[in-house]
Specification:
binds copper (II) ion, binds protoporphyrin IX containing FE
């Protein structure tokens, strides 16, 4: 890699050229900078993670012992529906989006994403969609049909109230955000790579993100269609899912899981990508079998579209379909196993540094493997018929989603916090956070395997004593409380380190990729000069003597204008378009039918929202690109 040499008069190498840019709430409302949008996703998604976590703690408090009545059966339905929906769509997906936004342009040597304003739009649609679907729980009107919303339960006949309308419309809104972002990142990764950054030189996080964008673009249209059918059934009297009118409730299950299974890879592949960044850094060794790790990621993405009906072994598809989907599901274990093998081979004989980030990466390997093994167990239809809809399944997906996604994302936060904020998180608190999480996670979810094998169904709001479930539930609940403590330690470390953490410098971990070649936090324009890349580990290419003071790509304290770099200007229009879109959708449920408690559309609200959206979009598309010709 060739870079601008350190300017001789740099006094404090650690902060030289670091971001000093825009300040104030207006600059956040109008930002189109991928790094700031990444931080907005991070703060918002961590908030929703805590909301989802709180819902989980209330669920566990209710289930901590037999015959409890902390919450009603109806409110319990709302709690698990929103817990699942929040964790999947408002916490883990946006936490991954925080890393897509902050990291991808830095890893490929670009100054921003392909469509910065569209990027801002995605964030605001996510935020407004998240508020739209979350607020109802405070009025006990939240979605209550489970996170996969099976029909006919979610049709008007069985759910006449407004609850399911919030879920259907909320997910449609969030789908707009995910799809817009996916097209943005696909275009960015294909077109904006620095000279020499060939596909097989891309850092692994960018590779796995690349695969995920394809999954998003292919999977989200499927659930969008399923939701539109349900919206029509609920609002306009069609019968896509009503069997007595010639519809088919199983159509929903097929459509939901054709989206839903790729969705689990959308949730875990970014964490896999982060772990593939962390392990080489903290072993000071290249990733073992880089190309094989890339291909196994692609294969997981591809096979992920061929297994959906393993969620439906109990609906009576017949032996042929059961066999096919069982085999395809078992096949996926191979590329997943390859990844785990390559990670272990990377760590083997490495110069290991057990930082908090490294512990979370190793935590992912062990916990995800436990989840993967139980996944193989219920890929066999006879075993599945015993385990489906029991706590064995709840245990399984928490080992892959908490043990996988969340552990990987925590590792990524400790690793990239210095690049984002210029300061290090506190390692002592980090280690406490890790060990509390690791122990509490196993206390919470491992006993669920046994409760499930002993017949405890999921989604029951209470249970009778003496069925052999009491002890397992008591341990799980204790574990959940301890997880709550672990998350408080993390939040304290996160917030206090932003102000008081040790100054980090460009590359505190001696990591190998481009994002570590620029100051922390990076200047608005990222790279003073577009880097030229000659290998997969540009920072490790440098002469040994440069390691202490690597040639970082900076020019001290100059603004983009002074550097002659044209950066996209701030604008409020993406936010206004997003607001118009959400108001338009909200108009569908703006009034209530007193008889059924169901919702009714209010046309003027819909038109007002549409007018704001189209007006702002028009002005956005007509506004000139060059900053000086434009008044905000
Ligand atoms: C923070 C700690 C967590 C605890 C204590 C927890 C606990 C639980 C419990 C007890 C249930 C079963 C509710 C029931 O069937 O009645 C559940 C369901 C679920 N959890 Fe978690 N969970 C946690 C984190 C997560 C995370 C990180 C995810 C990631 C996506 C997640 C996703 C789900 C989903 C999708 C469901 C199914 C909801 C449904 O049946 O509709 N959970 N969780
Ligand atoms: Cu699946």
């Amino acid at each position: 890699m060739t870079t601008a040499a350190i300017t001789p008069h740099v006094t404090d190498y650690k902060t030289a050229g670091a971001y000093t840019g825009q300040k104030g709430i207006w600059s956040w409302l109008t930002t189109v900078d991928h790094k700031r949008i990444g931080k907005l996703y991070l703060f918002t998604a961590l908030f929703f993670f805590m909301v989802g976590g709180l819902e989980a703690v209330v669920i566990r408090a209710q289930l901590g012992g037999p015959n409890r009545s902390l919450v009603s059966a109806e409110f319990y339905n709302q709690l698990f529906t929103m817990h699942g929906t929040t964790m999947v769509f408002l916490a883990i997906m946006p936490l991954s989006a925080a890393f897509f936004n902050f990291l991808i342009p830095l890893q490929i040597g670009a100054r921003d994403v392909a469509f910065p304003r569209l990027n801002a739009f995605s964030y605001w649609v996510y935020l407004f969609g998240g508020i739209f679907i979350t607020v109802p729980i405070f009025f006990a009107l939240a979605p209550n049909g489970g996170w996969f919303g099976y029909t006919p339960l979610t049709t008007k006949a069985y759910s006449p109230g407004i609850n399911i309308d919030f879920w259907v419309i909320g997910l449609l809104i969030l789908g707009v955000s995910s799809l817009a972002a996916a097209f943005n990142f696909l275009t960015t990764i294909i077109n904006l790579r620095a000279p020499g950054m060939t596909l097989m030189r891309m850092p692994m996080f960018t590779w796995m993100s690349f695969v995920v964008q394809f999954l998003l673009v292919l999977a989200f249209p499927v659930i969008t269609i399923a939701l539109v059918f349900l919206l029509f059934d609920r609002f306009f009297g069609t019968n896509f899912y009503t069997v007595t009118a010639g519809g088919d409730p199983l159509l929903w299950q097929h459509l939901f899981w054709i989206f839903g299974h790729p969705e689990v890879y959308i949730l875990v592949l970014p964490a896999f990508g982060l772990v593939s960044e962390l392990l080489p850094t903290y072993s000071q060794k290249p990733l073992f079998g880089y190309a094989v790790v890339v291909y196994s990621g692609i294969l997981i993405g591809f096979l992920g579209f061929g297994v959906w009906a393993h969620h439906m072994f109990a609906v009576g598809m017949g032996p042929v379909a059961d066999t096919v989907f069982s085999l395809t599901t078992m096949l996926i274990a191979i590329p997943t196993g390859v990844k785990i093998f390559n990670w272990i081979a990377t760590v083997a004989q490495g110069k290991l540094k057990f930082t908090t980030a490294m512990l979370f990466a190793l935590g992912l390997i062990s916990l995800f493997t436990i989840g993967g093994i139980s996944g193989i167990m219920h890929s066999s239809p006879p075993a599945n018929l015993q385990q489906t809809d029991t706590y064995f399944i709840v245990a399984h997906f928490h080992y892959v989603l908490f043990g996988g996604s969340i552990m990987g994302i925590f590792g990524g936060i400790y690793h990239y916090f210095p690049k984002m904020f210029g300061r290090l998180m506190h390692e002592g608190l980090g280690k406490i956070h890790f060990w509390l999480t690791f122990i509490a996670m196993n206390l919470t979810f491992f006993p669920m395997h046994y409760a499930g094998l002993l017949g405890m169904p999921r989604r029951i709001y209470t249970y009778d004593a003496n069925q052999g479930w009491d002890l397992f539930n008591a341990i799980s609940t204790g574990g959940a409380y301890l997880l709550g403590v672990a998350i408080i330690v993390f939040i304290w470390n996160f917030l206090s380190s932003m102000k008081r953490g040790a100054i980090a410098g460009p590359n505190p971990w001696n990591a190998p990729t481009l994002e570590w070649s620029i100051p922390s936090p990076p200047p608005e324009y990222n790279f003073a000069q577009t880097p030229e890349v000659h290998s997969r580990y540009p920072m490790w290419d440098q002469r040994a003597s440069d390691v202490d003071h690597p040639k970082v790509n900076l020019t001290e304290g100059k603004s983009p204008e002074q550097m002659g770099i044209i950066m996209p200007y701030n604008t409020i229009k993406p936010l206004v378009v997003a607001l118009g879109l959400v108001v338009m959708f909200s108009g569908l449920i703006a009034s209530r039918d007193p008889a059924t408690g169901g919702s009714k559309p209010v046309l003027w609200v819909m038109f007002a929202g549409a007018a704001v959206m189209i007006g702002a979009l028009y002005s956005w598309l007509l506004s000139p690109l060059e900053p000086e010709h434009h008044a905000h």
